[in-house]
Amino acid sequence: MAICVSVRSATVKEAAAAVSVAQEKGADLVEVRFDLMSSPPTDLAPLKTAPLPKMATLRSKAHGGEWEGKDEDRLRLYRRAARAGFSLIDLEIDSPLLGFRDRDLKKVEVVVSHHDHEGTPPTSRIIEIMLLAGARGDLAKGAFKVNTVSELHRLVHASKLLSLTGKKFVLLGMGPLGPITRLRYRRLGSSMTYASLEPGKETAQGQVDIASLKKMENGIITGITGMPLGHSFSPSMHRAAFEAMGIAGTYLPFPAQREELPLLMELMRDLDIAGLNVTIPHKETVMEHLDRLDGNAEDVGAVNVIVNQKGRLIGKNTDVSALAQAFKAAGVDVRGKRSLIVGAGGAARACAAFLRRDGANIVVANRTRSRAEEVARRFSGEAVGLDDVKGMDFDVVVNCTPLGMKGFPSQLPIDPEVFHPGQVAMDVIYNPERTPFLTEAEARGCKIIPGREMLIYQAMDAFEAWTGQRPPYEILAEAVRKEQE
Ligand code: NAP
Questions:
Q1: Considering only CA atoms, which residue is closest to atom 2 of ligand 1?
Q2: Is residue 130 within 8 Å of residue 93, measured between CB atoms?
Q3: Ligand 1 centroid from CA 400, angstroms
Q4: Which residues are catalytic, by number?
């Protein structure tokens, strides 16, 4: 198992300097991408004494590189590389030079590569390609652009099957879902992974820099699934927590269609993904694919966090515990309080679960009355119409609709006459920080709790469930503040 730093440089001299840096950073070998140099070099002497094993690559334009020359010129360069101590050369699977072994090239091993910059074909086709590549040289290498969870699943499945052959191979993903295949290359059975020398010097999409790769060798992978994965604050919060706490971990997006959920769950186990956030529209549909639900997820009928406990996938709902912590931090005890929940979706159910558990009296008002009735029934509350709340008196009012959220109408979900001094008003919306609901409630003398609090506490609970360590509130709050700017 080896880390190969793929060197992008303008000259041979620069490449030689990069090899020394790669060695310092812990690389096992380097690939010199001659096709990315300003012109193909004639003098490779500076690389002769480079301190790591070297691979020469002159990737053609047709295979995603920059080389447009003739095969004779490529042969000439590879011979020169062999004489300069290169122990490996890369040839594409359809190269006419495959099988050509003269005095110089007899000394080198041939990596036979296939690149697909469009997508990942079915597993059977990947296997076909890899077996053919293996038969044509010393090491088969396949790199496929991984666009979707289904494609990632194909690649991981192919890796499992190739591992059974006992032959060495390199199978990697490029593109949006590529990085995880590079971080988990050992688990996938690849004998090598490619890394960039530093961020910004990648030679392929989805490549990770060597420092991050080394740090993540046994690191914790977490992420988020949903469709579409719009702008979420979760990556910033969790990445900030990993960074500040010095935990080797990363947070990646896994956009998935509903029918891809079982594949994603299998990938969580295969790729050792410690946990995922689940967002719209999978919070309910994902439940049937999990091994167990915790009490809050059962109560709410929705999962916003999955925890991988040694291959057993546990569904949690950290929105419920987050609401409890947000109210506690604000010094509000809801026991016996008459509470109005506006809305009847997932956030409203989480709110109802918290309020019921903490002994509040629940009233649910929603645009669609039947949905309010459903929530009221489930959590032993009362359902009313949105217009009915005007003459009613509440100690606590919680907005659980998206009205006032960025991208939604900037309007109040209920008549402002409901607000009065001494009341507690919470809005679960966190973007913007100050919604029309909160502004109006505050102006009318209410104590307000912003949705940001719930957002931060649900993330703290998720992070703790995945890593065993509780992140500091302030780190996550700072990440949210930056997102809200
Ligand atoms: P959801 O399941 O889609 O439910 C949305 C609710 O809002 C439904 O009851 C819907 O009424 C109502 N609604 C939507 N548009 C409306 C309109 N124009 N007028 C009146 N009512 C309307 O959504 P959700 O998952 O509960 O999320 C709701 C909000 O909570 C989102 O803004 C989300 O970002 C936020 N949230 C925040 C946190 C946090 O950590 N702070 C956590 C979870 C969710 P109908 O039943 O009539 O369609």
A1: 345
A2: no
A3: 5
A4: 283
Same domain, 168 and 33: yes
Residue-number span of the structural domain to which 411 is assigned: 333-449
Q: Is the pTM of this model over 0.90?
A: yes
> In 141-294, which residue ranges form alpha helices assigned H by DSSP?
149-164, 179-183, 210-215, 234-245, 261-270
Q: Do residues 404 and 435 make contact, with C-beta atoms less than 8 angstroms apart? A: yes
pLDDT digits (tens, 9 = 90+) for 21-69: 999 999 999 999 999 998 889 999 999 999 999 999 999 998 999 999 9
Mutate to test the pocket of ligand 1, among 316, 341, 354, 367 (most ligand atoms within 8 A of CB): 367
Cβ-contact 63, 35 below 8 angstroms: no
CA dist 146 and 153 (Å) reads: 9
Residues near 256 by beta carbon (within 8 Å), at least 6 away in sequence: 148, 149, 225, 226, 227, 263, 264, 282
Query: Is 106 inside any structural domain?
Result: yes
Residues 355 and 445 in one domain: yes
Cβ < 6 A, ligand 1 pocket:
319, 343-348, 366-368, 371, 400-403, 405, 413, 428-430, 451, 454-455, 458
Q: 366 and 441 share a domain?
A: yes
User: Which among 215, 247, 271 is the end of a domain?
Assistant: 215
In angstroms, what is the span from residue 342 Cα to ligand 1's centroid? 9
